[in-house]
Amino acid sequence: MAAPRAFLRLVASEWSGGRRRIHDLSGVVASESQQNKRRTLLQFLSDYFYDVQFLREYLHQSKMRKVQLQNRYFIDIRKQYGPDIAGALFILKQGGAVKFRDKEWIRPNERGRFSTDFLTFQAVPIEAVDASGCAINYHGLDSLLPLKELQSLSLQRCPNIDDWCLSRLHPLAGSLQELSLAGCPRISERGLACLHHLPNLRRLNISDLPAVTYPGLTQILVEEMLPNCEVLGVDWAQGLRLGPEEPSQEPASAVPA
Q1: Among the four residues 43, 44, 63, 179, which has the most C-beta atoms within 10 Å?
Q2: In terms of pTM, does the model score above 0.85?
Q3: Partners of 204 in the beta sheet?
Q4: Four-CA torsion 212, 214, 216, 218, nearest 10 degrees
Q5: Measured between alpha carbons, how far is 195 from 120 in angstroms, rounded to an integer?
Q6: Contact at 8 Å (CB) between 204 and 222?
């Protein structure tokens, strides 16, 4: 029986030593695991921020391509039907509305669909365009400038209409009488100064233009530039103040004894 006992003691000692070696090895593995976790976290943060920047650039480029596609010129439609039909199709596809002379307004429905009956109006000119909120930009104006009998144009809240766009409106000088630029975030005083090329304007809306520093003063200058035009905007005193309003300090009235 001595031999088995000695064998058990030997096995027990070897087992204890092995456990100590395994414990020491587990500590090394744990430290390496923690280092790997730190490297993995840094790599994740690096990849994450890189991917966010790449995603932002990708979304911006996709948005620009979409705007360019929306502002393409329907040259084949113009060759076949004329500039008014091509202009009407351009505006309707952007979600706007058009009115041919002596006809009702044509607007797309909630799903963006519209009747194509206007294709038969080749001999009827467009007299009004409502492009409020549309994505029309500098290049998209190519579809509107050939409308020689256009009298009313609304570009309200168009995010891509800027000062350069206003400098292109002079081909409409012979017919345009009403123009609305209300709520366009990229129009400044420089663009409004280009409207002197439109002497036949009778009504102009320049309200809510955040890029205009002094709205009241700008309205006065525009009224002087277009004396026969009714300019809608802000109160004449707004924008003339050089600083924030200060509470009026009126002398206190004497308290009767």
Answers
A1: 179
A2: no
A3: 179, 231
A4: -60
A5: 34
A6: yes
